[in-house]
Specification:
alpha/beta; TIM Barrel; Lyase, Ornithine Decarboxylase, Chain A, domain 1; eight-stranded mixed sheet; seven-stranded parallel sheet; elongated; disordered N terminus
Length: 382
């Protein structure tokens, strides 16, 4: 695996000689993914969702790369993330998805960021604060059109609509969130798009945002004025069941600590859940669930597990994945093709983050946000 320039995300990860796993993040690919989505939107602004530490990949370097690449609007989860993005994108518009609380007020002003208002109670608190401070920075109004999570009700949004006829109404963005955008033909998509379109008509002159990563691929009707891709920026496929249009961003690899023979009918790993059907040569890799390799990718006699790329070939995980180690069946590789100290790739190349997630019964989002807290972290293309 190619070595690359080392950058810190928040706290530096361990140096390469001191750790097992190597996590490489391609900042150029993230920027290329954002630019590809922006081109598809044509006249609609493309923001970037960088919450959860940029989906686990490092908020500071990711925000800096996206800002340099042309992104002007960012969405974060909380105020701490907003502070980090502001340090890298001085002129950007930043929305805080978790909204407003009184103890955030002064920092919202000092950072010049915008809360996403998620309830009528929160709106009243925000209005009182903004009025007391004569703050005109604006806020997004989140309307629940079918997610049934955060957001004011449709009825509340209708009742609030006359507000936009007043001076200094304070609404800078009308926002909702698609629940099933990754399933193109799900009937809720059309219901939400149409409902949001009708609401938007009640808020003339206010920019509107509905589309997430997958929503961009639902077509122009879902685009409105501002799209908010997140997972697609980081290489997750936004088009379920179709080829991934995004560039891969992440590579996770670990060194081989030992190569050993396991005789036929002998078990491997905790619980003795996987039994060798032949004399089996295994490589023991210095990666485990403490590095984000989910235990659900383990293999047993009744279930195939995940895979790794060793010496350019796809090889199966065998036995249970443990905290620090995973065993790989390398029996079919030529003798001498693999040595102690060589690296095995767990994510990268033909092993996409979506495949790794599917093997573990989860989604790429969860894989990304769990990756490599103790790995040697490198960035390239920044």
């Amino acid at each position: 695996m190619a070595r690359a320039k080392r950058l810190s995300s928040s706290e530096p990860g361990p140096a390469a000689p001191e750790t097992g796993g190597m996590l490489t993040i391609d900042l150029a690919a993230i920027v290329a993914n954002w630019q590809a989505l922006a081109r598809q939107l044509i006249t609609v602004e493309c923001a970037a969702v960088v919450k959860a530490n940029a989906y686990g990949l490092g908020l500071k370097p990711v925000a800096a790369a996206l800002a340099k690449g042309g992104c002007k609007t960012f969405f974060v989860a909380d105020l701490a993330e907003a502070r980090t993005v502001r340090s890298q994108a001085r002129q950007a518009t930043i929305y805080v998805l978790h909204g407003f609380t009184a103890n955030w007020g002064e920092a919202i002003i000092s950072l010049n960021v915008r809360p996403v208002i998620n309830s009528a109670t929160e709106l009243a608190e925000w209005d009182a604060f903004a009025s007391a401070r004569s703050w005109l920075g604006g806020a997004a109004l989140h309307v629940d059109t079918g997610m049934n999570r955060l957001g004011i009700t449709v009825e509340e949004a209708v009742a609030l609509a006359p507000r936009v006829q007043t001076k200094n109404h304070g609404i800078s963005l009308l926002l909702s969130h698609l629940a099933c955008a990754d399933t193109v033909d799900h009937p809720l998509n059309e219901i939400q798009v149409q409902l949001f379109r009708e609401l938007r008509m009640l808020y003339p002159g206010i920019p509107a945002s509905l589309a997430n990563s997958s929503g961009i691929f639902l077509g122009n009707a879902a685009h409105f004025d501002l799209a908010r891709p997140g997972a697609a920026l980081y290489g997750v496929n936004p088009t379920l069941g179709r080829p991934n249009p995004m560039k891969a961003v992440v590579e996770l690899a670990g060194p081989i600590l030992q190569i050993r023979m396991v005789p036929r009918d002998q078990a491997i790993g905790y619980g003795a859940t996987w039994t060798a059907k032949r004399n089996t040569r295994i490589a023991v890799i210095a990666l485990g669930y403490a590095d984000g390799l989910l235990r659900a990718s383990s293999a047993s006699d009744d279930r195939a597990g995940g895979a790794a790329i060793v010496a350019g070939k796809r090889c199966s995980i065998v036995g249970r994945i443990s905290m620090d180690l995973v065993c790989i069946d390398i029996t079919d590789l030529p003798e001498g093709a693999v040595r102690r100290g060589d690296f095995a790739t767990i994510i990268g190349g033909e092993l996409t983050v979506d495949e790794v997630a599917a093997t573990a019964g989860t989604i790429g989002y969860e894989i990304l946000t769990r990756l490599g807290p103790r790995c040697h972290l490198t960035y390239r293309g920044g």
